[in-house]
Write a structure and sequence with these properties.
The protein is built from four helices and five strands; from the N terminus they run ββαβαβαβα. The chain is of the alpha/beta class. The protein has a single domain (15-113), classed as 2-Layer Sandwich (Transcription Regulator spoIIAA), CATH 3.30.750. It is globular.
């Protein structure tokens, strides 16, 4: 059985959202998991923690969803962190795809939640246009 609860935590400028998955994430279950990630990304937090500690199997559709979520978080100025400990089948999937060097992985959900989100971009100061001849 697969369970994918998600919830928000934190207040103020550090906006943290957690998505948890459990069980086997084969193609069918992965679709629900990816939909939950996508729902979170519709209003991206500064930090998205994906807790995979209770996932016993994950296939390439999960990897695709994680990489897509990682890219979208980066584009929005946020960070995605995977929370472990990752079980061997999940670790092997990430290793085979060389994704462990690309995705941030924390020891557990608490450590992942403490990861600093990517700093918000500083506002760009603009000067008013100069008048000609000045």
């Amino acid at each position: 059985m697969t369970d994918h609860p998600h919830g928000a935590a934190g207040t103020g400028p550090v906006d943290v959202e957690t998505v948890r998955a459990r069980g086997e994430l084969d193609w069918e279950d992965a679709q629900d998991f990816v939909q939950r990630l996508t729902a979170v990304l519709d209003r991206p937090p500064r930090l998205l923690v994906v807790d995979l500690a209770d996932v016993t199997f994950a296939d390439s559709s999960v990897l695709h969803g994680l990489l897509t979520a990682h890219r979208r978080m980066a584009e929005a100025g946020g960070r995605l962190v995977l929370a472990g400990p990752l079980r061997e089948p999940v670790r092997r999937l990430l290793d085979l795809a060389s994704a462990t060097g690309y995705l941030h992985v924390a020891a557990d959900a608490e450590a992942a939640a403490r990861c600093a989100p990517v700093p918000a971009p500083a506002p760009v100061a603009t000067r008013p246009p100069r008048a000609r001849g000045v």
